[in-house]
Amino acid sequence: MVKITSCMMIVFVFCGAAFGVDFEISWISGSTRPDFSRTPADPTTNDRIEFVIPTDVFRNERQAESYLGGTPTLVIDTEQRRIDLKFQPPVPSTVPTTYDPVSGLEGYFGPLEEGTWLFYVQFQGVIYIDSLYVSVYTGGSSGDNLTEHFTSDEDAFDLMYESILFTPTSSGTSYDVRIQEISELPTDPSGGTDLNLGDDAFKFVKLTGSNAVSIYDTDFTGFYVGSNGYITFTEGDQDYSESLQDHFDTPRVSALFRDLNPTAGGQVSLKQLTNRVVVTWENVPQYGSSNTNTFQVELYFDGRIRLSWEHIDARRGIVGLSDGLGVPSDFEEIDFSELSGGTTPASDYFVEQFTGDSDPFDLEYKSVTFSPNSGSAAYTAKVKDISELPTNPSGGTTLALGDDAFIFVKLIGSKTMSIYGSDFSGFYVGSNGYLTFTEGDRDYSESLVDHFDTLRVSSLFRDLNPSGGGQISWKQLTDRAVVTWDDVPQYGSNNSNTFQIALYFDGTIQLAWAGVDARQGIVGLSDGFGVPSDFQEVDFSKLSGGTSPDLDYPVEQFTSDNPFDLENTSITFTPNASGSGYSGEVETISGLPTNPSGGTNLSLGDDAFAFVKIAGSEAVWLYGNSFTSLYVGSNGYITFTEGDQDYSESLQDHFDTMRVSGLFRDLNPTASGSQVSWRQLSDRVAITWQNVREYGSSSSNTFQIELFFDGRIRLSWLEMAAQRGIVGLSDGGGVPSDFEQTDLSELSGTTPPPIDDFLTEQFVSNADPFDLEYTSVTFTPTADGTSYTGSKQSITSLPTSPTGGTDLGLSDDIWVRVTLSGRQVKVFNQQFSSFYVGSNGYITFAQGDTDSSETLEEHFETMRISGLYTDLTAAYTGSVTGKQLSNRVAITWEGVPEFSHSGENTFQIEMFYDGRIRLSWLYIPSPSNIVGLSDGHGLPADFVETDFSAQY
């Protein structure tokens, strides 16, 4: 069987000089088959390029070479720009029997000259094709050359009011570099600790807590600060001679390696923040001089290093990083001033400054939601209209903030939130309309310089005065922390401003505004790296709204460099009015949306397909075309015009016919325990690949494609072992010439609209008998947690098996208190670590209940979940059990009859720790009962029951 793995990686950068080529290859020991990989992803003409090639697992090297046709070697053709992995004969004549397994090949080649190269591997019917672009090395990511030596007036220090950020590459042994202009030091040294350094002296600094800094992939929990403008790590240093030999003789960060003398003026101080430690030389003169020099080193706990210079009188000195291995034999200094500022991520532009009458604040009754990308280093944003703040601040904690003040807020429990990839268990609330994270701030000047000088979320950065009116409060919910400025006026004004910042624990940030009288201010996010040199503000009012725009190409290809990241996720593609495009929404799931139980097994073999005819007059749709039948392929896709056996997962094969790929990958459903099945429901067809293994693998994958009769398409994934494959939709027109894949994990999340109902249905005997047998209803809390949306699903068994649960010992008209182990449930935005289970089919929270009369007044008199509120008794038959799981608790009434009746009722209440509530019913002979939720506020005067079977 021929298999082709295609890894196409093309990066457009500037080109330059070439270097000679070296290479080496060897076997990988062990019985674990590795993944195909190559690093770095974007090589330069200075890089050695390392690779890993998986093979089958062989008993030893000689057996591998015998089977593959000889000794592995690389053939590098510099004219064709091609690297071939070949197996050169002769084949070994004998194969030893010693068990010393090998499972792949590894090696390196390079440096390569600039341009596009092809790395080609073929053996055993397997082809790996890796196209790579080699860019010119500019000194921006080498471990040896990140140093500049200023030697004279003709080569004088030229980095005043500049900042250089060194970001470690994936290997940790080199750095990417970005330079930008600054107007002041990134971190204010005020409040730091004076190190009291003498001339030619050093002092050891021990980091607090479990924090560590690193240089060249080596971690340190402490370091040495030298008075002469550098930091060392393995030992203190008193060198003042600023030679390259001294700079490179130990791991070192030289911000300005020069003979400085802090005893003659200025100071050297230390300041540890939550995400970094900062050392500042402030107004320190050179030895024997009265000049002054102010600069700073920031060592981030994630490995980044930033050097910044304010006023510098020194003309000579050394700047840069050293790995401590001595001056490289081929050392060439870098000219930092000629580095580009790098590609500024879109997140740098998620800031808008409103300046007054010509550009007044225009976000009243809007919200902006920032969603982090997969690396959390940048954000996407969407805006939508609101009628009130998303989170009701009632019940929050008032923060006693005065004018130009801040207060620290510590999150409750083990919760953390993140901004630009850094996690925090607390934050600082500033009275002037912002949150900061590494330190509190009293700035009121609303300048871009002040906004960007620290990690910050500005909802309305303006000179506000909560001591003049209104209040600032905070509130922690299960999924977020929320800070609200309520009717807070500007300083010297009696106007009022109401707005809110919500920090979600999954990294999402939401800003929202109700009534805002201010006409000026700053809104947006800051990564704390200063105003970007090419900053351009965004106009938030012109961002797309809550309805996702059509996706250009709803397709993502996962490779070894971009592994599958949609586990426990569901994506719904909704067609536009013409059917020619789709919008997409993603949500987290804990189970497949459609239970495959009771479906038809398609009995698919390896690389096979089955024809499915939709029953009745129903049809499914793809790109405006309707189909009453479809073809299910074993390799994770559905086609429509013809069956397909492709397993190669190339973009060409995905796009060559109308196709929905749930996971286009070489799969093999013939393995034991694997199954591909289909099921037709009233509104859709669902195809499920259940525990299906990749070809030649023992790990399984479970996913589902649902084709709704209204044109929507939903893809869902649970446990997925596959790291590679293709996901998405194809119109069959071939790979588009301008194709760019979509990162499906970054699509906007679903926000179902609130349903105006009372979440309760009463069944009254023969006039309105119970009609929810073999059904589940899931209640999902709305954004403010005070109401719910509902959805209904057919079932054939209870979602949570009661087997192994605890018998609660309930008989007739009694209750028992259940206390959870280390978890809480949430009902109507209130959290409970215990609750009361009543024998008569309900759960209460304030107190136990024995009511059996099933009236609406009694249902609504207390906070209650009624699974089947009627006069039940488990005194003689049936049981009521409780079972606590990792994400929910389930209470099950199994075979419980009504009092004086023999019919046995089986139903279940599940309370998820994220706030969802699910009610499920199997066999229910009871015709009269109450089902639903109650907030305990009494029977509403305008109560209208919900018909769950019709509305959901």
Describe this structure in words.
The protein has 952 residues and is mainly beta. 3% of the residues lie in helices and 43% in strands. The strands form 14 sheets. Strands 41, 42, 43, 50, 51, 52, 53 and 54 form an eight-stranded antiparallel β-sheet that branches. Strands 12-11-23-22-21-20-13 form a seven-stranded antiparallel β-sheet, with no helix packed on it. Strands 27-26-38-37-36-35-28 form a seven-stranded antiparallel β-sheet, with no helix packed on it. The protein starts with a strand and ends with a helix. Residues 1-19, 139-143, 341-348, 545-549 and 750-755 have low confidence and may be disordered.
Query: What structural category arises from helix and sheet content?
Result: mainly beta
Largest sheet: 8 strands, antiparallel
Q: How many angstroms does the end-to-end distance come to?
A: 49 Å
What is the count of helical runs? 6
Low-confidence region ranges: 1-19, 139-143, 341-348, 545-549, 750-755
The general outline is globular
- Radius of gyration (CA) equals 33 Å
